[in-house]
Design brief:
By secondary structure, the protein is mainly beta. 12% of the residues lie in helices and 32% in strands. It is globular, with a radius of gyration of 15 Å.
């Protein structure tokens, strides 16, 4: 399964259209924002400088401590469909959008926030380690029968899910975005 994740990671770009905002003020209140550049993507501060998957986070990778409250934000330049997968520090991989955490697709262009109830953010949980997000955007509806419905829980992905997602990416006009961050104590 990790080989398929690596293949998706390799097809994706360090993307300035994904960022994580810390929502609680109990700790350092500096929010992680990655600004968009019209002509190039400069995300060296993410600790990922090329298309090679690196399971070991760099020291300059954004980090959030256990207990932090965060929202994921995705800037979309067009209306369409967004599949968001996350590889947790535990090694488990989930499809978190579509699910009850996300708005109903297709979505309009602009900023999409996960979870959709921005007043009920994600709370960073152990284990400590690196987490990776791969988002797949397309203007056409994905024809993947395993995708969760808008009212469903996030789906834990198995090898066959990732293989069909990679096949979908290879056969369709999709934009892949990636983001990596570190969970600390």
């Amino acid at each position: 399964m990790s080989e398929i994740w690596q293949a998706l990671w390799g097809k994706s770009e360090d993307d300035t259209n994904i960022f994580i905002e810390k929502t609680d003020s109990s700790e350092d209140s500096s929010n992680i924002y990655i600004e968009e550049s019209a002509s190039e993507i400069n995300a060296s501060h993410l600790g990922i400088s090329n298309n090679q998957w690196n399971p070991n986070p760099q020291t300059n990778c954004p980090s959030f401590s256990v207990g932090s409250k965060i929202n994921y934000k995705f800037r979309l330049n067009n209306s369409g469909y967004l599949i968001v997968t996350e590889k947790f520090a535990s090694g488990e991989i989930y499809c978190i959008a579509p699910s009850f955490l996300s708005p109903t697709f297709p979505v309009s262009w602009g900023t999409l926030i996960l979870p959709k109830d921005k007043d009920d953010p994600f709370v960073v949980q152990p284990p400590i380690g690196c987490e990776e997000i791969i988002a797949v955007f397309s203007q056409e509806k994905p024809q993947l029968d395993w995708l969760p419905k808008p009212e469903d829980e996030p789906l834990e992905l198995q090898t066959e899910h990732l293989a069909s997602l990679l096949n979908h990416v290879n056969k369709n006009n999709c934009k892949l975005m990636r983001y990596k961050y570190l969970i600390t104590a």
